[in-house]
Amino acid sequence: MPNFLRECVAREGQEDALRDDLVAAHERFARAMPHLVEVLLYREHFMSRRFLSIVRYDDERAVASLERGEMLDALAAVERARCDGPGDSRPLVLLYEHAAVPQRGQYSVIALLTALSEGTANEVGRRMAGGANALVERFKPTRLVVARVVDRLRLLVMLDAGQAIDIDRYLASSLRRQHMDALAPYLSAPPQWYALDPVWRYFRDD
How confident is the model at residue 206, as a pLDDT? Predict the structure, then answer.
């Protein structure tokens, strides 16, 4: 199942307009693409100007489809209007995935990490995937994904839950310090935290 990550940063004062335009562009194409499974829109914690989306497809037919090309063109047009430049949709390689039944949580967060080098990116991915089962046991998420962004030193952890996720509480916790003690030597900057848009998401009803 192909998965893609797209990042963009709004110009100052364009945050709300960018969010609305991204939702409108995704809504316009989502139901017209039979092999598109899910679209999730996130905004960086603390109401930042940074947004990212996760798009999941059934198979490679959708990735190469005319409809997807039109959707990417529409997103690029939105980003040129609201950002300093268009974003880039990058494929994800899943290193770990846990999905409960049902797997769709009402809430979701993403931690986006940037490694120092190719070698440290591999080590971060190995450590995060290796520790994922412990997170599942502790937090009982509806979904937990660890992934690597192809051709980038970027990795992510996505956690879905049926109850609200308190990012601030985690950031102040001893568990966060434990995680950072294990990962910080391999990262070029602290992780960026994103929360799922509270109003809009798309999931195909089979």
Answer: 60
Alpha-carbon span 2 to 4, nearest angstrom:
7
Are 9 and 64 within 8 A, CB to CB?
Answer: no
Tokens 């030597």 locate to: 185
User: Is residue 195 classed as helix, strand or coil in its secondary structure?
Assistant: strand
C-alpha 133, offset from chain centre: 20
**Which domains does the chain carry?**
3-91+196-203 (3.30.70.100), 92-192 (3.30.70.100)
- CB-CB contact of 119 with 127 (8 Å): no
The pLDDT value recorded for residue 30 is 87
pLDDT in tens, 52-110: 999 999 988 889 889 999 999 999 999 999 999 999 999 999 999 999 876 666 899 99
Q: How far lies 161's CA from each of 62, 98, 101, 125, in Å?
A: 28, 12, 12, 22
